[in-house]
Design goal:
The structure is a single chain. Strands 1-3-2 form a three-stranded mixed sheet. It has a two-stranded parallel sheet with strand order 4-5. About 25% of the residues are buried. The chain has about 475 residues and is mainly α. The longest helix has 25 residues, at about 450-475. Strand 2 (about 320-325) and strand 3 (about 330-335) form a beta hairpin. It has helices at about 1-20, 45-65, 75-80, 85, 105-120, 125-135, 135-140, 145-150, 155-175, 185-195, 205-215, 220-230, 235-245, 255-260, 275-280, 285-295, 300-305, 345-355, 360-375, 375-385, 395-405, 420-430, 435-450, 450-475, and strands at about 310, 320-325, 330-335, 335-340, 390. Helices cover about 60% and strands about 5% of the residues.
């Protein structure tokens, strides 16, 4: 009897729990404290439950990825030491994210002077540009995170964008003309303002600058910004109008900088023709997957020991990476790059932009690729000797630490530089499986590794030749 009483008691408790778990308006006589069912009992419930995460993921991701001017992901803010130094403007703010911060009050006065310069030099009317901005203020408001703009009325936001946009263009004009001292901008502050203009959370929509304020062709507008960044070289003019017309519209000047830093995707694809063919036909065997996954790179010193020569690419575009094997030796071409005190801030903001938007991880992939080549200061020294890396920091160790820290904890994209990685792996595998190749490579490195050894060998060969000729005529003097 006692066992039956226990079973009945448990059944009553289960029944009570089921009744209290009924949702409001769905059977029963009350709402109950809990509004979710403990078990899925129907197929309809099953379908709704499995689709809930998908709906939540879409709504949460679309809210951030569809923004033109995004913010630094929280993950980076917690991972990067002294994050404010790299993500917060130091002199001047553009846009609503850092507007009104106490340490930027002097920048507000400076922005008024720069905006006045812009209107004066271009002979524009404030009313005309302001009316253009007001007519499209709702679309411009949606370019930013809603929490950053909701405290501003349409008029306040329009005035902010008007002054910030004109100040940015006025500053670019000021740098061109070399009149920064006239506006109280110290020479040492020029670099800081330049860095502020490329911060992710300090961006203005590109259409605001291009459509409403400049009213110039896309080619002229692009050239002006690239000239300001020092990126308008001969290749820009060689590309011509067609390249600019066919390019995807930019979201802001950081996006423009990134696109021209990476290079034309059609000319320097991260996944070249061989890789594309591999994708189309599938990975195939387990060996193909192994080659792809394990095609990690060795550092520069090990590559050079295996007979791989490091040479600069013909362009500075980060996508211009290639590998060519010549049997016993091979050549890895890398784009030249300069590292100075401002590079870390720029790189961290480019990383934040790719992680916070729906663009591909092309720049992050380049960093992972380059970091895999650098283990220590010796690798940096070899890259500098090859003309790949210009080190404006104090020591080679600082450059090695720079790449090792900036690219840490970044996701690996197996498609990026896939054919280069696979070619390097196949070359290294063939090299170490062939003892004659190892001997030949060691011989080339030992006796022909530098211009001085080559000169010595040529000199020795000439001495032997002339000695042989002299001996011949001494024996056969007739």
């Amino acid at each position: 009897m006692a066992g039956k009483d226990v079973i009945l008691l448990v059944e009553d408790q289960i029944k009570n729990l089921a009744e209290t778990a009924q949702p409001e308006g769905g059977g029963g006589d009350g709402g109950g404290a809990c509004t979710t069912k403990p078990h899925i009992r129907t197929f309809k419930d099953f379908k709704s439950k499995i689709r809930e995460p998908e709906k939540k993921e879409k709504t949460s991701s679309s809210s951030s990825l569809e923004l033109e001017c995004t913010q630094v992901p929280q993950r980076l803010l917690s991972d990067v030491k002294d994050a404010e130094v790299y993500y917060v403007p130091q002199v001047i703010s553009f846009g609503p994210y850092h507007h009104g911060k106490p340490h930027l009050q002097e920048g507000e006065t400076l922005k008024l002077k720069l905006a006045a310069t812009y209107f004066r030099e271009f002979d524009l009317l404030e009313d005309k540009i302001y009316s253009r901005i007001c007519s499209d203020i709702e679309a411009l408001r949606k370019c930013y995170n809603g929490t950053s703009t909701e405290k501003y009325t349409d008029e306040e936001l329009s005035v902010m964008l008007l002054m910030d946009g004109c100040a940015l263009l006025g500053y670019i004009l000021c740098v061109w003309l070399g009149d920064h001292e006239e506006y109280g901008i110290r020479y040492q502050d020029l670099s800081r303002i330049h860095q502020d203009a490329l911060l992710l959370e300090n961006q203005l929509p590109y259409r605001l600058l291009h459509n409403y304020m400049m009213n110039k062709s896309n080619y002229a507008c692009t050239f002006m910004f690239l000239e300001f960044f020092g990126m308008a070289d001969k290749s820009f003019f060689k590309a011509g109008l067609e390249s600019i017309k066919n390019s995807m519209p930019c979201r802001h000047i950081l996006d423009l900088y990134r696109k021209n830093f990476l290079g034309d995707e059609r000319s320097f694809s991260l996944t070249h023709s061989e890789s594309t063919a591999t994708v189309k036909k599938g990975l195939g065997s387990v060996g193909d997957v192994k080659d792809l996954v394990m095609a990690s790179f060795r550092n520069v010193k090990e590559l050079m020991t295996a007979g791989i020569r490091i040479k600069p690419s013909p362009t500075r575009y980060l996508r211009d990476v290639s590998f060519t094997s010549y049997g016993i030796i091979a050549c890895l071409r890398l784009p030249p790059i300069t590292i100075d005190s401002s590079t870390k801030k720029l790189f961290l903001n480019l990383i934040a932009y790719e992680m916070s938007s729906d663009v591909s991880y092309d720049f992050i992939s380049y960093l992972r690729f380059f970091d895999s080549l650098i283990d220590n200061a010796d690798d940096v020294k070899e890259l500098q000797s090859a003309g790949i890396l210009q080190n404006n920091l104090d020591t080679h160790e600082q450059v090695a630490d720079f790449f090792n820290t900036v690219s840490s904890n970044l996701e690996l994209n197996l498609d990026a530089y896939k054919d280069v990685r696979v070619k390097i792996r196949k070359y290294m595998k063939n090299h170490y499986n062939s003892r004659p190749k190892i001997w030949m490579t060691q011989c080339l490195d030992t006796y022909f590794g530098s211009p001085w050894t080559i000169i010595a060998w040529v000199g020795a060969a000439l001495i032997l030749f002339f000695t042989a000729v002299q001996t011949y005529f001494a024996v056969f003097h007739h």
